[in-house]
Request: fold
Amino acid sequence: MRVVIARDLATALAALGSSGPNARILAGGTDLVVEMESGRTRPDLVVDVGRVTALRYVRETDSGLELGAGTTCTDLLRSPVAHRHADVLIEAAREVGAVQIQNRATIGGNLATASPAADLVPVLFALGARVRLTSRRGSREIAVEHFVSGYRTTVREHDEIVEAVMIPRRPRAECRAFRKVGTRRAQSISKLVIALAVGPRGEDARIAVGSVAERTVRLPALEAALARDPSRSGIEAAVARSIQDEIRPREDVRSTVEYRRTVLGRLLVRMLREALVTGDLTP
Reply:
C-alpha cells in the first residue's frame, strides 16, 4: 500500500488522478482506519488530506453556509457562524462519539463514508445541502440526497474529492429537530436517526431518517401529507402510512425491524406534534 500525505489540494488531486478505483481518502480516519485494521478495506493507495487547510473552514456566504469537507465536529461546535445557520447540525455534531472522535471526524468523511447510521447525513438531507466535488477535470455540485447512492456508496468518481458542503439559508419561521436513538446515551452507533425541517403550517417539509434502510432516505409522502393536514390527527395518520409504505428497516446486531419501525413512528409523531401542534420546537 502506498501513502501520499498531501499538504495542499493540488497534491491530493494529482495523487487521486493517477490512481485507480482502489484508492482511499483519509481525513479524520475514524472509519477508514477501523476498516483497514479489520481487513475489510485493503486500498492500493491512501491519500491523507488531514493537513490540507483549504478543506477546513466554516464560511458564511450570500446563500447560507459553506463548510470545507475537512471541518470537524469540534470545528462546528466552536463556530458561531455554524450555530446561526445550522443549529440542528450542531445538535447532531454533539452526538458524534466522544470528544476524541469529534476532534477527528469530518463532515466530508461522515458524508463520503455513506454509512446508513451516519449521524450528520440525515441532517444534511433535511437542510437541503449540496456537495461540491472537485478533481483535476473540474468541479461539480450535486444535491446531498443524490450524492449518497446506496449502502456505503456515493456517486463520487475515484479521482474526485468532496471539497465542500453548502447549506442554503433556511426560512426564519422554519422548525428543525434532530433525534438519535442508541444503545446508550453517549458514544453509540445509532439504531435510528431522524432529522426534519418543516414550515409552521406543515409546508416545505424535509424529513430524513437513517438506520432504516441501506442508505439515508427522505419520506416524501409524509412530507406532502403534512402540507395538506398538519393537525394532530393528520400527523398520526400520515406517520402510520409512512412507516409502512416508505421505509424498509434493516435488521442487524443493533436492532430489529419491528423495533425500528415502532420507535420511528413514535418519534416522528412526537417531533411533528412539537413542531406543528404544540409549537415546542423553536425556529
Observations:
- The chain has a mean pLDDT of 93.
- The first helix runs from residue 9 to 17.
